[in-house]
Amino acid sequence: MRVIALMLLYTPRPCPFLHRLDLVVSRHLARLDEPQFQQQPPPTSPAANDGRGAGMSPLRLTPARGDPAFAPMHASPGQPAAAAAAAGAQVPPRDDPAAYRGGQRLLRLLRTAWFKCPDAPRPSDVSSLERLFNSVEQSGEVIRFARSLTARELMAAEEFYTPFIPGCGGDYTGLTLRQICERHVLPMGVEVEQLQIIAACTALGVTLAVLDVAGSAVGAIKHGPAAQQHGPPVAWVAHLPGHYDVIYPARPLDVAPGGQLVAAII
Length: 266
Fold this sequence. Notes:
This protein has helices spanning about 1-10, 15-30, 80-85, 95-115, 125-135, 135-155, 160, 175-185, 195-205, and strands spanning about 35-40, 60-65, 210, 220-225, 235-240, 245, 255, 260-265. By secondary structure, the chain is an alpha+beta fold.
């Protein structure tokens, strides 16, 4: 989520990258089912009909189908996996209201930030990003959309991504790529590995640099489409023991073929 914000804040405008990102988000959003809502009548309990506030009970809109956004954001990873496996569901699922709303939010943010589309009510700025980050529900929906997009990329290129599985650790041993998507990609609150980072960067068409400080030697590597790796990365993260953190280089940097950090040529 923070990496997406970096892309918005530090990319020159106008920029073909942002137009490409708009296209990627729009295409995946079109693959998701638009949430269907049904109107729920007001309660008919005696208290509601005894004359006190009669006819004043508001109608509520409730989801017609299960909505992941109404479940805890950090639900047990096994629960979504078991449900998907039992139902033989498509991976990623088309019926994902939270991901759909997250895609809409991201698309609106992209267009109001730099594109100045006719439907944009006003330009976006840093404060609008901060408001999104400070809303657990809204930022969670955008993350859910990113997870859905990453799962689709993995499933669409199984032959390419399968060789990366052995390097992901014991939790991935013996799992198919579909099972990995169900257990480690789609559920909220689950840490990602190099596999998901490569897939997400490829799906978005961006280059991300990973600074590895978890091992004995410090080095860096760039992930993303091969055609986009000839220039400096859009954003940087540090690989620490057990997790990744967004980092902000004091000056523009790039990654040399051997993993050394070099000054970026802009």
